Structure formats: structure tokens, C-alpha cells
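Record Riboflavin synthase, 204 aa.
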Amino acid sequence: MFTGIVQGIATIDAVHSQPGLNTYTIRFPEENLQNVSIGASVAINGTCLTVTSQQGSCLTFDAMQETLDLTTLGALKPGDAVNFERAARIGDEIGGHLLSGHIHTTATCVAIETPENNRTLQFELPAAWTRYVFGKGFIAINGASLTVGEVTGNCFNVHLIPETLRATTFSDTAVGDRVNIEIDSQTQAIVDTLDRLGYRQQPQ
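=>
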């Protein structure tokens, strides 16, 4: 499990592609590698991956075809920056909301506003997933736990403070970029339960 509080930015060092499998070598800040072990879980842009080897400040991860199909990882190339979070431990503060690291879908950035001292990003989701997105609800974008701002049709936005921009890759997000989305599990369970009971959400 993860908390959605991004711990820092890592850099793709190398990508080795094979049929049905990509192997990523990712360089991390050394201070974030204490007590890391083979088999540990690390969220890369919100996607839970398993450490397969370590060499210095680099960790290696494998991503199978299903992961590449469901996420943006297949588009990563050497030099790209990614958000990361190591798995939560019992007793850790849950500063965001609980995440599994299992990506549901991707969204595309369709607009950016930059009012003073913050940034607003607007994303378009596949229609099937918009039923789980509500104003002031939780959503995870590239592994970061964020609060939804406004929702209009298939689009929603998030408002980012300077600290979030400093600690994540969102300061470099551009219109047209795709991001990984993990829907809040509690929201999904409630919506699906109400749907089964016949209380279908009306289109906005």
C-alpha cells in the first residue's frame, strides 16, 4: 500500500525492451534508498513495481505487457523524470489517501492555468471512469494523492500548491501529456454499490 504522498523525483537511466516486458533502470536520490531490498515495492508514477536489483543509486524494475497497456510506463525513455513513493509501513502517517498502486486508466492533460503561486491542471478521462470522480473527492494522478476541483463532463481539474509542484513532476506537465490514474477505492465501492441498487449517477 501507498499513501499518495510522493517522496521525490527519480530519473529513468535506461529502458530495455523485450517482447511483453520492459526493464527499467531508475536513478534515485541516495537518501531515499536506505534499507531498500530486492522484492520491495516502489510506486513509479503511481504504478506499483517490484525491485529486481540494485546498483549504487539505481534500482531495476520489470513491467509486463498488461502494465504497459494500462499505464504510461511504456512511453518512458532515458532522461524522463518520474514520481516515486516507497511502500508504506505500519505506523506511517497517511498524509494523502490509501493507494494500491494498481492503475485503473490514463488521462490526458487538456488545459493548464497558472494563477499566481499555484497551477491548475485539467484532465480528460475515458467516459467509463468519470462516474467515480467528484468535486472535492480523492484521486491519484501519477501516484500523487490530490483533491479534485471541478468536474465537467469527462474533464476534471486539480489545483496544485507550490510544495506539490516542487516535490513532483507536475511543474513540467504539458498539454497533451498522459498521466496514470488510480480511482479512490472507497468512492468506487460506494458508486458501484449504489449502481447495483438502482441509484445510477446522472450525467453532469
